[in-house]
Specification:
It is built from 5 helices and 5 strands. It is an alpha/beta fold. The chain has a 5-stranded parallel beta sheet with strand order 2-1-3-4-5, sandwiched between helices. The N and C termini lie far apart (36 Å).
């Protein structure tokens, strides 16, 4: 049995959850650019998008997600607060902070809650490879291979 509707690409087996990524950015143009950059991965990754922290937390509560990529400069709340809450409530989720021109103080502050940083305007290949490595790390953590 599969969970892919007709015309939605190759079916995914129901017994294994697809690697999942949640991208949070308040700028719709950035979300659309990132969606385009990840188009080839949409058949094998469950990629979701949120415009702000409240929507992101709601999605995280619905089902555990592998990776959270959040802009540090969200409109309603800062990405730092979202990453802090995600660390507390969803510690199994790999957290990536995304910023353009973040001040050094901001980057140091985010280092306590983000596993990695990504420039907001990075090229598509950097985005894909960063997310692929984060998903691989998430899978190893979930399988208990990196725990003592």
């Amino acid at each position: 049995m599969t969970n892919a509707p007709d015309g939605a690409g190759p079916p995914k087996p129901m017994n294994r959850r697809a690697p999942s990524v949640l991208i949070v950015d308040s700028d719709i143009r950035v979300r659309e650019r990132l969606r385009g950059a990840l188009f080839a991965q949409l058949d094998s990754w469950d990629v979701r998008f949120a415009a702000g922290a409240a929507e992101a937390l709601s999605l995280l509560e619905e089902s555990p997600l592998s990776v959270l990529l959040a802009d540090l400069h969200l409109l309603a709340t800062d990405g730092q607060s979202l990453l802090e809450e995600a660390k507390e409530r969803f510690p199994q989720t790999v957290r990536i902070a995304m910023a353009d021109g973040a001040a050094p103080r901001e980057m140091v502050r985010a280092a306590g809650v983000a596993h990695q940083f990504l420039p907001r305007g990075c090229d598509d290949e950097t985005l894909r490879s960063t997310l692929a490595r984060a998903l691989a790390l998430s899978e190893l953590l979930a399988a208990g291979r990196l725990r003592r």
